[in-house]
Amino acid sequence: MIRRITPEELPEILDKDTIKILVDMCLEFPKKTFHWANISEVLEERGELEIILDIVGKKRRELEKQHYQQWWDSLSEEEKANEEKKHKKMLEDPDEFYGNMGNPEYP
Prior knowledge:
It is a single chain. With about 110 residues, the chain is mostly helical. It has one domain (about 5-90). It has helices spanning about 15-25, 35-45, 50-75, 75-90. The radius of gyration is 21 Å and the shape is elongated.
């Protein structure tokens, strides 16, 4: 269960524990409360929102890497080979036309 802080509980000086809670609140999806919206306004006024969002960005990149690695590890050798072929093809010709999703009837 994620611990939350209300805007009234937000300390004047952010310590490591408070920053961790704020990062977890920001990453939560879907949001269970509206506390993050109110806290982000307070942090913006104090000039501290960017600090939290930088940490959130780093955390998201780490989670994406972990997710990608789990996905890659779950593939069979044949699927990995197919993915590598697709990747190599895209590197060779990045401007190749892959389909018209907006108007499929018009090439």
